[in-house]
Amino acid sequence: MAHFILEYSANLNGQQLALEALFEKLHQCAVATELFPLAGIRSRAHRCEHFRVADGKPLNGFVHLHVKLGSGRTEEQKQLAAEQFFQVLSEHLQTLYQQQPLAISFEMTELPVTLKYNQNNLRDYI
After folding, report:
1. Residue 111: CB partners within 8 Å, gap ≥ 6?
2. Lowest-pLDDT range, 11-20, 59-68, 87-96?
């Protein structure tokens, strides 16, 4: 399980963010680590209509990537994956970062071992 949840300020648009391309890069990166099965990877984005960044100037924007993981990976594996995911995010946003004030942030959370239910037939189609 690797779920990529992206939040971004409403003063950024989909063309600037190229979300489909970003999600493709993140999925490829996750699979390349050999820590995450493709069928368990999800991505979604949430545009934040109400926001304020720093001094509130209209061009100040943000992009925040939260990655949720299932348990079972070592600290070293999680650290390596986190570094790679943040590098993908930062490189993808580099042009935008050079054009306007932009805060790029990242966090990765491992879900505790709890009762969890899910069902999918994605492996049948991959």
Report:
1. 1, 68, 69, 70, 71
2. 11-20
Residues 106, 89: contact at Cβ < 8 Å? yes
> What is the Cα–Cα distance from 84 to 90, expressed in whole angstroms?
10
Closest CA to 4 of 40, 36, 35, 41: 41
pLDDT digits (tens, 9 = 90+) for 7-49: 999 999 888 999 999 999 999 999 999 999 999 999 999 999 9
Q: Give backbone dihedrals phi and psi of 116, rounded to 5 degrees, phi first.
A: -145, 135
50 in helix, strand or coil?
A: coil
Would strands 2-9 and 61-69 be described as parallel, antiparallel, or unpaired?
antiparallel
- CB count, 10 Å around CB of 92? 20
pLDDT of 115: 64
At 32, list the tokens: 């390349």
